[in-house]
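Contributing new records

If you add data, match the layout below exactly. Sequence lines come first and carry their own label; structure lines follow with theirs. Keep one chain per record. Anything else will be rejected by the validation script.
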Amino acid sequence: MEFSLKTFHKYLGLVMLLPFIAWGITGIFFFFKPGYSEAYQSLSVKQYPLQHLVKYPSSIKSSNWLEVRQLASILGEHLLVKTTEGWQQLSPETLEVIEQPNKEQISLLVNDAISENSVRYGQITSINELLITTNTDVRITLNWQSLSLRQQGVDTDFINTIYNIHYLRWTGIKAIDQVLGVVGLLLVVLLAGIGTVMTIKARK
């Protein structure tokens, strides 16, 4: 029994060697967090002083507006309204919903936002709907409704991959990765338990 327990413990340790190495290396990476500030830096639409305030009609008192933001960008003034369904952008003059800007407006808005960090963002190479790609392989997503930007580069992808390795998200299929994570933790507990039993028996 003792021999089989040792053998099982040895082979279980070999099975867990790869996850342990992955956890160790990725854990060191997360401790020092190299490149995090660049990879996850915030990117915002550049704002300018407002020239005038929107005068809201009395009809909005019966509307479903929860929050209102007014700001100015290189494109002019924007009126952002939050409802129970989320944010939407309205025309400050007519209060009509502005569904989406054209490519020229997107280019102007994003170029203005990335102008202060040309080393990271470089120049725009393509605009596909609200996804903007630059020649430094940075992808910028514009949320027109809330007038916000989100950037993701090669370094961001790399860190996300390290994160997935650390948490055993190896297949990209959520259901399978969840099972792998649970199995991995159970095997660690089993490995520790067998080691404890062997230690107690050895002392006796």
